[in-house]
Structure formats: structure tokens, C-alpha cells
Amino acid sequence: MARGDLVDDSLILGLIEEEISRAGVEGVVLDGFPRTLAQAEGLDALLKRRGEMLSRVVLLSAPEEEVVRRMTGRGRIDDTAETVRHRLQVYEESTEPLVRYYEPRGVLKRVDGVGTVEDIHARIESAVGA
User: Fold this and answer.
1) pLDDT in tens, 60-102
2) Positive or negative CA dihedral for 76, 86, 117, 34?
3) How confident is the model at residue 8 (pLDDT cuts 50, 70, 90)?
4) Cβ contacts of residue 60 below 8 Å, gap of 6+?
5) Which of 48, 52, 62, 119 could pair covalently with 115 via S-S, beta carbons 3.0-4.6 A apart?
6) CA-CA distance, 91 to 34, in Å (whole number)?
7) To the nearest 10°, the Cα dihedral for 18, 53, 119, 79?
8) CA–CA separation, 26 vs 28, rounded Å?
9) d(CA 36, CA 97)
């Protein structure tokens, strides 16, 4: 993770299943998950076993320089510009295929991630039907 690589799929799927089981509520929000096609397929299998299904996927987008500026400003030691740019490259290679996976299913909602926190929050609420 410190290099900007993703956590192993089997590990993260196990953690997600544990959290969903422990939540004990109807519906959860998974922030930043799934990040790979294998994780998406694993999530689908997990939800199917539970008799549940995914209702929305929100894709926040912002220009690369905006993402780098925000992440390097968080104060975390692993948030260097180099590491952030590597994460964005990993995103392009591993996560972008999720758009092609979810879009045909009609669950993908694109949200502009530039603006005030309040504006972005309102856009997300609108996208998920809140």
C-alpha cells in the first residue's frame, strides 16, 4: 500500500464479507471498493450468496492534477506526488475496466468530483437516490 499498490483481492473480499455480515443493516456503502474486475466479480458472488444485489456504483471523477493536489495535501507520509501518480496509473489499469463492467448493468452513476464538499455531496446524494 505504501507504494500505491492495491491490497490482495482475497484479503479485501474477506474483510468486506466480514463487515457486511457484521453490519446487520439493510444496505451498506463501500467506499473505494471494488477496485478490480476480480473484486467486482467476487462482490457479486458474495451478494448472490446472501440473496442481495448491488444497486448503485458511483464514479467520482476529477482531473489528475486536482487529485494529486488533494491527496498530497492530506498529510499522510505515503501521499507523495510520485505515489499518488502511481495510484492513478494503477487505477487506469485495474479499475477503469469496472466502468465497462457496471455501465451496461445500469448501476453506474458518474459524478463530477470537482467543487465544494457540499456540491459534491449533493451530487452523490442525487446519484444514489438519497
Assistant:
1) 999 999 999 999 999 899 899 999 999 999 888 888 899 999 9
2) negative
3) confident
4) 111, 112, 113, 120, 124
5) 119
6) 11
7) 40
8) 7
9) 8
Which residues, including other chains, have CB under 8 Å from residue 27's CB and lie 6 or more apart? Answer: 55
Q: What is the pTM of this model?
A: 0.79
What is the rounded distance in angstroms from the CA atom of residue 70 to the CA atom of residue 113? 11
All structural domains of the chain with their residue ranges: 9-23+31-128
Cα Rg for the chain, rounded, in angstroms? 16
